Amino acid sequence: MQIMLPGLGNQLDFFLKNYNVVPGKILVIGSASEYIAKTLAKRFNRQVDLIVEDYESLLNSKLLIDNNPGINIKLMEYDITDFQDSEFDLVYAQASISLTKRNKIIKELKRITNAGSYLCVGEIVNLTQVVPRFIKDIYDSSDLSPLYVESLEQYYLERGFLVLASSDFSESLHDYYSNSLNMLKDSKQILTDNEKSYYKKLLNKISHESNAFLKLGGDKYTGFKVLLLQKGQN
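-> structure tokens emitted (234 positions)
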């Protein structure tokens, strides 16, 4: 199964290469992360909680997880969860927290994780300090607020995390958007007219963002960076 998120399968490969601890409780954040949750549950033989923020993603995740007993799927806002303090030892988030409410999400993640716990995060980043209007439009449509790539590690250091490993997978965004357009084309051939009407806003959004990135040179301004972090003792 292909991971259809920015970064594609690169973040998961990076994580499995650099993480050599057996975790207790695991949290995966974000829609389209079902394969990731399955992989982590099988790899570590641990229960995995997967949270998504909208009902449509919840239904889709439940369908793809297919009653896997090792995975609990829940509908929660990422910055206001129902989890207990210090509940998790590992959090994995791929392209799911580069949002305008990032600060609140990170504060919540610090609350629900143990001291010494690990966070593997993949973030959409700006490759230049100033980006053009069409890039801002893409960000606004998805409520994104990316940091400048050179500032990402410092952001987490200032919030009490240690940076254990990092990698830049910006080049993968071209394949991600190309794959998105191909999947969009395939889906339009099998969707009914009613389904096309229902998903019209989403389909148009995918088409617009992908074409803008590929045809207007989005790779000059937008990238994707992955960090493996460890929460400090404080």
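The chain has a mean pLDDT of 89.
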